[in-house]
Write a structure and sequence with these properties.
By secondary structure, this protein is α+β, with helices and mostly antiparallel strands. The chain contains 5 helices and 12 strands. The radius of gyration is 18 Å and the shape is globular.
């Protein structure tokens, strides 16, 4: 599961992202400049909001970036409300589901993020309300995280068929590091896999091999304030360690 994340790229983060992407086919600095100018700069992006995604523009042989609606709106959908149920695409079934099976072959994208939030269910005593502890998860090396996505363009009938790009994050089984927080995790791509990911001619087996849990130790995590539970809260403190959460051994 991946349903909430920050996308706030300062000059340092953009340079780290450039380092990750520079070896990929179709890369040029224009894409990084566009990302700097147009990404939403939010610490708490939620479903139905917008985030910047990256995908190849095969006609111009380069990578491009643009804002897209978080939650896929299939091209055949009658209204955008379907997107709230389509924020994630399971790697195990993405090749068969009608909304995704065409996209995994031809419309693969990246979602560059600083990290993502996950909520861990906390055991409760009888009669007490069950609670969840939010965690903030990043790469241990502090580089941006590159999430595997699929995207589509929908023509909005309410606005003269104005095009709306949208995306779903691909998920897989959680690795051991995250399994006590949630049983699913987003697919994280490494720089050396980007050419195969972006290439429409890649064999399905090569693409399937990329849709796997992250290696153990790739990620770091800490507990954060329950303020992140509300998408209305959007500030840098959401990603800061929660000093009231107690000792780190309490929930893993």
């Amino acid at each position: 599961m991946c349903g909430r994340f920050p996308q706030v790229f300062d000059a340092h983060a953009l340079e780290r992202l450039r380092d990750l992407l520079i070896g990929a086919a179709y890369f040029d600095d224009e894409m990084i400049n566009a990302l700097a100018d147009h990404h939403p700069r939010s610490y708490n992006i939620a479903p139905t909001q917008h985030a910047a995604i990256i995908h190849p523009d095969h006609d111009r042989r380069r990578l491009r970036t643009g804002l897209a609606h978080f939650g896929l709106i299939p091209s055949w959908a009658k209204e955008r409300s379907i997107s709230a149920k389509m924020i994630n695409a399971r790697s195990e079934t993405i090749w068969e589901k009608p909304a995704f099976r065409g996209l995994i072959g031809s419309r693969r994208a990246l979602l560059p993020i600083n990290g993502f939030y996950e909520w861990q269910a906390i055991p409760s005593q009888p009669g007490q309300k069950r609670t969840k502890q939010p965690w903030y998860i990043t790469r241990a090396d502090e580089s941006p995280i590159l999430l595997a996505c699929v995207w589509d363009t929908w023509l909005d009938p309410a606005y003269d068929l104005s095009p709306v790009d949208s995306f779903s994050i691909i998920t897989t089984d959680a690795n051991k590091q995250l399994s006590d927080k949630h049983h699913r995790m987003p697919v994280i791509l490494e720089p050396e896999s980007l050419d195969a990911w972006f290439d429409r001619q890649s064999e399905p087996r090569a693409v399937r091999d990329l849709l796997r849990p992250a290696p153990e130790g790739l990620l770091a995590m800490h507990r954060v304030s329950s303020r992140v539970n509300s998408p209305a809260n959007d500030d840098a403190q959401l990603t800061a360690p929660d000093s009231d959460a107690g000792p780190a051994t309490l929930w893993g």
